[in-house]
Queue: 2 jobs
Job 1
Amino acid sequence: MSADAVAYARENSARFLEELKDLLRIPSVSTLPEHKRDVEAAAQWVADELRRIGMKHVEVIHGDGHPLVYADWLHAEGKPTVLCYAHYDVQPPDPLDEWVSPPFEPTERNGNLYARGAVDDKGQLYIEVKALESLLKSHGGKLPLNVRVLFEGEEEVGGEQIAKFVREHPERLEADFALVCDTELFAPELPTLCVGLRGMIYTELEVRGAKSDLHSGVYGGAAPNPFVALAQIIAGLKDRDGKILIPGFYDDVQVPSADELKAWRSLPFDEEEYRKSEMGAPELVGEKDYSVLERTWARPTLDVHGIAGGFTGAGAKTVIPAKATAKISMRLVPHMTPETAFRQYREYVEKIRPAGVTVGVRLIHSGEPIVVGTDNPYIGAATRALKTVWGKDTVFIRSGGSIPIVGDFEKHLKIPSVMMGFGLPDDGLHAPNEKFHIANFHRGIESVIRFFEEAGSQ
Ligand code: BES
Ligand code: MN
Ligand code: MN
């Protein structure tokens, strides 16, 4: 059966790619209110496609935020059920002037497809859809296992819709395992399953001084400056060796097992290559006692994303601004919890607040860290499928990124997730010139076809 489906996917590969370009042309940027209609359009586009390929009960589910897309096909009696997850929203495309071709005009160059969302995550969402189409169309409208599909449009903003749906309607999502296509290969040509993700808390810190902006000559020397205070607070959060200074922050950090650490040491990782080619930074930073993979996969971190307020125009303006804000996030690892981390952070910020200002800390969104179980038959099915398509044994990695719903799948649906992703380390997620290696799009489709076949014959 999967041989027919793979043949179908190969015969239709050019069309699949053209369709993906259509989806990529819809600027479904979930964080920007002016794109709300585009996010809706992308949901409808995906729903139409699911209907067209023969999925049942296709529904665009509306709530407070951006919609969910649900579909199912549940006629493989006695077979397991997979819950297919991906997201159709994308990050904002800025800085626009750094794109070689416009972010929402998908363009092929050197075997890659360039567009915002190409790999994160529309290309990978479409891998799931085209694997389902290939199986349905090459086998008289039947699938080798039961399938539910749940796609979201607020992953990139940590939106609540999907978590709420999972909490409130576990019966509509009853499944044996989830397939999550939203991660990366560890290296080109190396089949990879991701088994751990960091969690996060994303916050906004607001510092206020005087009741309004002040002349910096008339009042400077006596007036509190919120920017200086903000800089002092930020400098107090983390030392120069990358250690977070929030009391108790590391208390619940779980050390990876000796086996896991050993496996990470045998991965093909060249630190200098990573620094120079992938990152392009003068030096790597962080906790010296931990390897780079440990630092990014198994240690918490704290980063500042932006500082706003005051005068940033051309020229000069002598002002002491009344307020300054910063977006600050922390990545969490097992067994930290967003609640404890946020409380510790809030209390510490208040404690190190300089004289003359007030501070406010707001939680924008949060997600739990997760390490998924590998002791289930679906991980075995996945590695067999990947071996068939890629001709190599699978490596198991963690990732420093976050996909908040994976924790909820485990907690509320009690199912493991198979995180099978096909991005490359240099695909430029969230950055200008995001791309998807086109060969990986097609091999991804074949991998999911084979995986469903394997999982269905358990
Ligand atoms: N697909 C990424 C997460 C990811 C990237 C996992 C690379 C594994 C490898 C996802 O779309 C993402 O960017 N998530 C956000 C989370 C969020 C709550 C805003 C992230 O990690 O910043
Ligand atoms: Mn993603
Ligand atoms: Mn993302």
Job 2
Amino acid sequence: MKGVGEKLAELLAKAEIRTLWDLLFLLPRSYEDRRKFYDYAAIEEAALTGDTVYSRGVIEKWAVQRMGPGGRARLEASVRLLGPDAKAEDVEIATVFSPRVHFVFFQAFGGHWNKSFPEGTTVFFRGKAQGFRGRLQIAHPDILDSRAEAPEWEKGIFAPIYREIQGVSTKALRKILFHALDLPPARRLPDILPRALTERLGLPPLAVSLRELHFPKHWDPSATELRPGGACFRRVVFEELFLMSLALHLRRSEWRVVQDRAADRVPAIAFRPAWLDEAEAKLPFRLTGDQRRGLEDIAHDLSCARERIPMHRLLQGDVGAGKTIVAFLSALAVMDAGYQVALMAPTEILANQHFANFARLFPERAHEAILLKGALTAKTKREVREKLERGESRFVIGTQALLTDTTVFEKLAFVIIDEQHRFGVEQRLGLKHQATGLTPHLLVMTATPIPRSLALTLYGDLSVSLVKEKPPGRIPIRTHVVKRRAFDALVHRLGQFLEEGRQIYLVYPLVEESEELDLKDVKTAFDEWRARFPATPIGLLHGRMKAAEKDKAMRAFSAGETRILVATTVIEVGVDVPNASVIVIEHAERFGLSQLHQLRGRVGRGAKESFCVLLSSDNPSESVRERLGVMENSEDGFYIAEKDLEIRGPGEFLGRRQSGLPGFRVAHILRDLNVLEVARREARAILDEDPRLERLENRPLRRMIEKWWGGRMELTLSG
Ligand code: ADP
Ligand code: MG
């Protein structure tokens, strides 16, 4: 592209912008509203909040100021403000009566500013205002001679503001995008949505929508608030959600075809009326009401499989609600009926933990379970698979990756997927590899607050059981935001916690020092903590360790051999060590709220009161304070997810990869639920007519789905 050299291309590539397509979908985060000229009072107010102001004035005087003898020179201008409607003849009056602001250019002595805009010129300017020594100043403003002379991409009444990209300013991005939109391929951007559909729904063409979103021209001028709720925005969101819905429907129907051929039977599992009480009697605790209800739902589905409909159920419950035991008890019932069960976890750590917990809770059944994990030798793996094929092992626990392709079962009747953050996994299951042609029942467990309509989209016609109630005796977790300057006091407190016999998680956001962000490397942190508590055994756990090492670290912590675990977010999902009752999260502001909630869910699992410390910088921004405040005040995962969305708000409304689902550039699953519903309905309607999208007008859809969603269906949902 003209104007994008090698260096710039590299910077953009780092932000995952490599193609014209990527660029066009880099939608603005918000817009600068230039309808509003700031008068003096408005600039004063903006100086308090650090907002960008936009106004007009006459250059009164340029001057070079020096800070002390030998100090750096800076260039200053005093500027008399002019109202937006001021005419040429007003300028003279203004220079006498209007209030002043000051432009300041540091280290710009000899710069061209005073030459380009000599005294007496009328200028438009824009920048961040601040109060300084009793006057209003704007450091390094953008100065434009007049709107007419501004470059095309700066002329709009709404100027786009893009997300931060290292080394590329919003101004530069405006220019790049302006040119990009004008390239022939962008202007002729094919509309893949069928014409009949867009017309019926009133959606403008894609090329028009993108242009309007980048450089709005037709914004409703009566709108008081800047938020792109209009048709152009809906169009882009709709397209994404529509394609996703189609993709999911397609996969599901492909799966059905396979299933119809292979499966002749859905196993019906018999349950004795007293089974639940008998099962509970063997547990070290009583089941909660929600756990019982979940188990009853499952038993109902599994036992009345007469219409060849396998169970398809989502078990949804906040972190720590006790979903695992529901999985184990229903698995045991299916094993008792003579069938096999597979439990799939997203990580090996979690698979190990489930295996160990099963053996601990049901020692007399432990021999029926088997663990399939990546760290096993090829020979052992083969042996495990042979046992499954011959039906010698009834219960296999493993990661999703291991339990898909090559595993053949003798009679698999029940598949449980824990911490389901994934798409379409159920379709990839070893369904085709059944010796006896059974269609297994499916239970999906998740702590992610997925709204019902989205769940329907993702999983098809599934039923939902909620585990809301937490196990009894849980003491609320005490959450505190601690500023960095109080770090020493925190270390002291952690020392006391250790003396009380507590175990501690210390969580860091990254594995290795990032170039851009000055985050602490978890390994450095590990060494520092060892120096701070030399007598305490400390473990380290991060994503780049080998599976066997992770396993060892987790096991040592779980057994209480290490007292502190310095870790990255690998512990986010599912890890259960009841004696760990303190979690400290470094750089808490770098995490999303839902992720913080997941992390915090690692504690509060035992009898002791638990603590969660969110370490933040000394001067957190307003929005960080608000977000962390939500964590201090709530332990309700659904509420937290809603808040997260709300706080991000219209300011970060567009074009940020925050949807929580892979593959979305614009759509946000919670925010755009209403669009999703329409998309889902329309997708179904189109597939009813043309099940494989083979008609001429639908072929572009099919191609796009293959291109965009083909590989993405298996990416993680919540990171
Ligand atoms: P999650 O729903 O997050 O997967 P887990 O299944 O890991 O939660 O359960 C969290 C902890 O609560 C485990 O240590 C588990 O043994 C315990 N637990 C589960 N159900 C009960 C119960 N009814 N009473 C007491 N403790 C329970
Ligand atoms: Mg769990």
